[in-house]
Amino acid sequence: MNNELTPSDIKKMEDEIEYRVHIVRKKALDDVKEARAQGDLSENFEYYAAKKFKNQNESRIRYLQRMIKTATVISEESADDEAGVNNTVEVKYEDDGSTEKIKLVTTVRGDSLEGLISIESPLGKAILGHKAGDRVEVVVNSNISYWIEILSIENTDDSGDKIMSF
């Protein structure tokens, strides 16, 4: 999988790392110390819960750092009339005539249940760079494909999008 991130993705990840290192880590360590001070660790649920939370926080920090380190930075820019990252695109599925509005995003922001479609997905790859009115084949695999029509493209931003957890 390519690790394509926009400068905005990287900024959001750096902000989360900063918050987790300076705020969450301190609280997690304090919680572990407090639970440890309660005595017998063999039956101390609070101690194990605090340790688990601390370890999850450290794991998330390492994950975000690794994502940034291995990222290929891509542009959020696209021509006004072409589908690009952060654009909301209305598509019509030719097989049943249904329409859907989707937003093209990088993989770390993808959430198909929320209409956020990764540019690495078959649908995202097919739409990228096309214009309203274009008829596009979405190739799922060597045996399955379908056709869509791009009805409209709206320039939107990523201000409300979150970096997904792992």
Automatic annotation (TrEMBL):
Every Transcription elongation factor GreA/GreB C-terminal domain range: 80-154
Gene: greA
Keyword Transcription found: yes
Domain of life of the native organism: Bacteria
Gene3D superfamilies found in the cross-reference section: Transcription elongation factor, GreA/GreB, C-terminal domain, Transcription elongation factor, GreA/GreB, N-terminal domain
Protein role: Necessary for efficient RNA polymerase transcription elongation past template-encoded arresting sites. The arresting sites in DNA have the property of trapping a certain fraction of elongating RNA polymerases that pass through, resulting in locked ternary complexes. Cleavage of the nascent transcript by cleavage factors such as GreA or GreB allows the resumption of elongation from the new 3'terminus. GreA releases sequences of 2 to 3 nucleotides.
Protein name: Transcription elongation factor GreA
Residue intervals of the Transcription elongation factor GreA/GreB N-terminal domain: 5-73
Similarity annotation: Belongs to the GreA/GreB family.
Organism: [Lactobacillus] rogosae
One Pfam family matching this protein: GreA_GreB_N
Xref: InterPro entries: GreA/GreB_C_sf, TF_GreA/GreB_CS, Tscrpt_elong_fac_GreA/B, Tscrpt_elong_fac_GreA/B_C, Tscrpt_elong_fac_GreA/B_fam, Tscrpt_elong_fac_GreA/B_N, Tscrpt_elong_fac_GreA/B_N_sf
GO terms assigned for molecular function: translation elongation factor activity
Keywords of the record: Coiled coil, DNA-binding, Elongation factor, Protein biosynthesis, Transcription, Transcription regulation
